[in-house]
Amino acid sequence: MAFGQLSLATGNPEYAEIAKKTFEIVLSKVDNPKGKWNKIHPGTRNLKNFALPMILCNLALEIEHLLDEDYLQQTIDTCIHEVWMFSTARS
Fold first, then answer.
1. Which PANTHER family match (predicted)?
2. How distant, in Å, are the alpha carbons of 33, 44, 49, 57, 71 from that of 67?
3. How far apart are the C-alpha atoms of 60 and 22, rounded to whole Å?
């Protein structure tokens, strides 16, 4: 977020590139954010952590000036769908 806002404030393309690359790294880890440190235990029910989609949505909005409009909307829609789908599935 900081590099995105810094790029907006300074117009420095290097900061914009760092912000976009970092965003892509975060998106690449959506399916397994903790990697080998995942605490999932076989045989237990699958729980959904809402932190990542909520943070991702906020991050996308913070760097929206660096993202393609369609890509931004797709990211936001995916985040909303994840939170909505898992929160309503339990009710």
1. N-ACYLGLUCOSAMINE-2-EPIMERASE
2. 22, 38, 25, 13, 7
3. 11
